[in-house]
Structure formats: structure tokens, C-alpha cells
Specification:
With 180 residues, the protein is mostly beta strands. The chain has a single domain, classed as Porin (Beta Barrel), CATH 2.40.160.20. 9% of the residues lie in helices and 63% in strands. It is built from one helix and eight strands, in the order αββββββββ. It has an eight-stranded antiparallel β-barrel with strand order 1-2-3-4-5-6-7-8. Strand 7 and strand 8 form a beta hairpin. It is elongated, with a radius of gyration of 18 Å.
Length: 180
């Protein structure tokens, strides 16, 4: 129960501070060739700790449909909560950056049909590790982020791995000294 309240408070705090963002992703690795391109929605915010770095917090939902002849009934859904450290190479908080992240998959389910046509739902939780890079920039006074990320969810002796490409609007708790 305490975990659910903590998660709800974090989600509420983040949603009050950021805008929703979207991404496209592809599952990679063994057993993923039958998955279609996945989509995700997430909220992310950052707290500047220096002129060129932020502590970030992100919660999201990722969905991947399986192309197995049963339509869109089969697939995988993951809901990771992650914390990270974004470092910009030029030290300004804009431009090229790297961002390692670590977290926990709050909810994961893979829905499949067995050999008899019956639906099987495999639920899981686990550690999340991610590494990303991107470019932060201003356009018409609005801050944007073009990013590429590799992420893995490790659970029950296996893992779900995916690559994500996104363009997002970035929001921070407070402005840097060099923001307009």
C-alpha cells in the first residue's frame, strides 16, 4: 500500500510540473521480430543542479503490439518510473547531452495466445536501466529535446529491451540563469 501512495504522489507532483510527451520505439533482441513499432507517453521533468546538468524524473507507459494473427489483442505494456542525470557537454544546459537513468517498472504485462488460442497474461516488475543522448534547443522561445535512448527492463530472469527515438518539449522546475 505504501508503494502505491508513494507512486501516486510522485505522479501527481510530476504531472503538475510538466507536459505529456510522446515517443516511438522498437523492441530489440531475441523473440522480438514479430512486434510492431511501439509507442509511449511519458512525463519528464528536471531540476538543474549546475549550469550544464539536471537531475531528471520520468514516468511513462510504453505499448508494443504483437503481429501474431490475433489483431491488436496481444502485446506488451510497461510503466517505468526512472531517475536520471542529464549532462550537457557545453555546460550551458542546452546542446548535446548524455543521460543515464535507473528505475523500476511499476507495471508490466505481456498478453499472448497459447497453442490452444487461450489468452495468457504474464505480469512482471523489475529494474529499469536506460542510456540516452540527445540535443536540447530553443525554437520560438520554447525548449525542445531530440533524443535517442536504449532501455532495458530486467524481470523474472529475462528482459525487454527497446530503442526509442523522440522529439519532446522539455520543462524544468526552475529556469537557469542563461534562460530567456
Amino acid at each position: 500500500m505504501g508503494k502505491k501512495i508513494f507512486t501516486a504522489l510522485i505522479l501527481f507532483f510530476i504531472v503538475m510540473q510538466v507536459n505529456a510527451q510522446l515517443g516511438a520505439m522498437k523492441l530489440v533482441g531475441k523473440g522480438t521480430k514479430d512486434y510492431k513499432l511501439g509507442f509511449g507517453a511519458f512525463v519528464k521533468t528536471g531540476i538543474p543542479v549546475t549550469d550544464g546538468s539536471d537531475i531528471t524524473m520520468e514516468i511513462g507507459a510504453d505499448i508494443f503490439f504483437l503481429n501474431d494473427g490475433y489483431g491488436d489483442a496481444d502485446g506488451t505494456i510497461m510503466c517505468p518510473l526512472k531517475a536520471g542525470y542529464r549532462y550537457t557537454f557545453n555546460g550551458t544546459g542546452k546542446g548535446l547531452y548524455v543521460e543515464p537513468q535507473v528505475g523500476y517498472d511499476l507495471y508490466g504485462i505481456t498478453s499472448l495466445h497459447d497453442e490452444n488460442g487461450q489468452v495468457v497474461n504474464l505480469k512482471y516488475h523489475g529494474a529499469v536501466l536506460a542510456a540516452g543522448t540527445g540535443y536540447l534547443f530553443y525554437l520560438w522561445g520554447v525548449s525542445f529535446d531530440i533524443n535517442l535512448r536504449y532501455e532495458t527492463v530486467i524481470a523474472q530472469g529475462g528482459s525487454n529491451n527497446f530503442v526509442s527515438l523522440g522529439i519532446t518539449k522539455y520543462f524544468s522546475f526552475r529556469k537557469r540563469d542563461n534562460d530567456y
